[in-house]
Amino acid sequence: MQPTLRRSLYVVILLAGLAWILLSADKTNSATAGQIPAPQRGFLAPEFKLETSQGQSIALTDYRGKAVLVNLWATWCPPCRAEMPTIEKVYQEFQNQGLVVLGVNSTIQDDPAAIAPFVKQYDLTFPILLDVNGEASDLYEIRSLPTSFFIGRDGIIKEVVVGGPMSEGLLQAKVEEILK
Amino acid sequence: MNLLSLFQELFAPPRDLILIVLAAWIGLMLSERRTPRRSMNLNTLSNLLLVSLVTFIVGGRLLYAVENLATFIPSPASLFSLNTALFDPWGGLAVAVIIAFAFGRRWNLPLWPSLDAVTPLLATLAIGIALSHLASGSAFGKETNVPWAIYEWGAFRHPTQVYELTASILTLALILFQRATSKPGFQFLLFAALTSASRLVIEGFRGDSTLILGGFRAAQIIAWFILLAALIGLDHQEKLEPKIE
Q1: Which pairing describes strands A147-151 and A128-130: parallel, antiparallel, or unpaired?
Q2: Do A38 and B153 touch (CB under 8 A)?
Q3: CA–CA distance from B85 to each of A23, A147, B2, B78, B96 (Å)?
Q4: What is the rounded CA–CA span in Å between residue A100 and residue A151?
Q5: Local structure of B88: helix, strand or coil
Q6: Interface predicted TM-score (ipTM) of this complex, two decimals
Q7: What is the distance in angstroms between the Cα of A118 and the nearest Cα belonging to chain B?
Q8: Which of A144, A176, B148, B202 is deepest in the core (most CB within 10 A)?
Q9: For residues B198 and B134, what is the distance between their CA atoms, to the nearest angstrom?
């Protein structure tokens, strides 16, 4: 290809690129999708209402304005067991600053009789919700346990951590982020 | 269950990392097979790639800890975790590139032929990353009503992961179509130009872009500058005589 023709082609490509940048700019910030409920970072956390083993009904909306960690777990899952003491420790440390931890047990795939001894064994003081019908697991499209959702005070999911166990440093870093 | 759902079920995070590791393995084989043995020492190049990989992993983890120093000082053992969320990928990449450049000079590896040699690896990695995005649902598109839209994260969206996958497969095909012994640096610059151009286009359909300066997509601006540099490089390449093997 002739140098002049080649350079003209390159200039056209670059100008077309600039035009596309201008055309596809998102002036209304609509691409951030913050108002749609979906279990993904940047989206509104999907609402759920579940009962604790004591029969108390708890909804995620009850905690709007607070930083919420939703941790989905099961008693048979080794990484879930491994990270529970760390979650409890971080909860104790940050609950006065507005941190709420909701431990959602995936009861649909767990032994309900094993839950109370598990909670006692790890001295868990945060609410444990029972996902008996798998409603929360479906809403949050859970494919691995544990999965943790870090939700900001505005109700937007700031981070999703799939798998575990989460180390204390990671947990604290993420919690400090949602408490800001 | 359709094919996409089955794929997403099979490679849901953190299993999507398998796709990237698999792509890296295939890419390494392609790079080794295509690099002319007379042009450089393949063992030295393999060692450089290994050093880069280790510095990427260690650098990414350490930089994440530095960014959250107050958190990690009381519990330094937290650094030793299998969780991939405790990682700064861009920081790790920056550290790996700097270290690779330094070691490459120290081991007398020629810059442009080395970049050409790793180009098939980079192009294959891009396919792995696109597949990982498709499996995890990240790098998703903005809402649309085009007939080929996919339902994802509560809305019908542009299948940007499929666009990304198609672009990266075409890029690899074009790279493999080139003669491995073309002008030094040509393959790498071609890869850089094609990848930045496709990112520039596809980013415009993304629903998760980082926006700057009143709505401009940061990745598009970065991609445009990379495209500019790659085209200047390619133009310069055209003035050189082809390397005769």
Answers
A1: unpaired
A2: yes
A3: 34, 12, 29, 12, 19
A4: 10
A5: coil
A6: 0.87
A7: 23
A8: B202
A9: 17
| pLDDT tens-digit series, residues B4-57 | 888 988 998 888 999 999 999 999 999 988 877 666 778 888 899 999 999 999
| B81:A25 CB<8 A | no
* Pair B12, B135: CB distance under 8 Å: yes
Report the SS3 class of residue B203.
Answer: helix
Q: Do A169 and B238 touch (CB under 8 A)?
A: no
The boundaries of the domain holding residue A173 are 30-179
Residues of B in contact with A179 (CB under 8 A): none
Residue type, B81: S
Distance of alpha carbon A119 from alpha carbon A122, whole angstroms = 5
Give Cα separations from B187 to A80, B110, B128 (angstroms): 47, 15, 19
Query: Beta strand pairing status for A99-105 and A67-73?
Result: parallel
Listed in sequence order, the residues at least 6 apart from A58 whose beta carbon sits closer than 8 Å to its beta carbon are A49, A50, A51, A52, A102, A127, A129
pLDDT digits (tens, 9 = 90+) for A122-163: 999 999 999 999 999 999 999 889 999 999 999 999 999 998
Q: Which residues of chain A lie closer than 8 angstroms to B210, CB-CB?
A: none
| Rounded-to-integer distance, Cα B91 and Cα B67, Å | 10
> pTM of the full predicted structure?
0.85
Do the domain assignments include residue A64? yes
Query: Using a CB-CB distance cutoff of 8 angstroms, which residues of chain B are in contact with residue A174?
Result: 85
Residue A6 domain flag:
no
| Domain-located, residue A7 | no
Contact by Cβ (8 Å): B146, B112: no
Domain count along chain A: 1
Q: Which of B77, B83, B204 faces A24 most closely, judged by CB atoms?
A: B204
**Interchain CB contact of A40 with B (< 8 Å):** yes
Q: Is residue A23 a part of any domain in this protein?
A: no
In chain A, what residues touch B84 (CB-CB under 8 Å)?
163
> Which CATH number do you get for residue A105?
3.40.30.10
Any chain A CB within 8 A of the CB of B53?
no
CB contacts of A6 in chain B (<8 Å) are 235, 238
B13:A163 CB<8 A: yes
